[in-house]
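User: My instructor asked us to take a sequence, write out its structure as tokens, and then describe one feature of it. I'm not sure where to start. Here is the sequence I was given:
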Amino acid sequence: MTDPIADYLTRLRNAISAGHKVVEIPASNIKKEITKVLFDKGYILNYRFDDTTVQGVIKIALKYHPVTKQNAIRSLRRVSRPGLRKYTGVDTMPRVINGLGIAIMSTSKGVMTDKEARTLNVGGEVLCYVS
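Assistant: Let's start with the prediction itself. The structure tokens for your sequence are:
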């Protein structure tokens, strides 16, 4: 697998389109940090890290609207990829849907959203857009 973050996002997209309540994804440190950001911003219901295997597994409970059964995540888009990395500074930081979505970034201070990176005045690699 050449791009594990793209695989992570694809597994989430597939689980959402299939209407699953829980999705299991092979774990890595960057995937764990992205999962924490998604939970903190309210895009997923809950998560658990299981270290029963060598690599470990992330179990993510997806969040749906109780009446319309629509998922909280409308779109997931990979921005920086192994063939073309996308880096940004504080002055050129992207805004997803004019501030309604989030851009998940990998900075020198850890994985965070674009809004947190602006307040800390750090730039970094734009991993994905979530709305």
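For the description part of your assignment, you could build on this observation: Residues 33 and 110 are 8 Å apart (CA to CA). Try explaining in your own words what that tells you about the chain.
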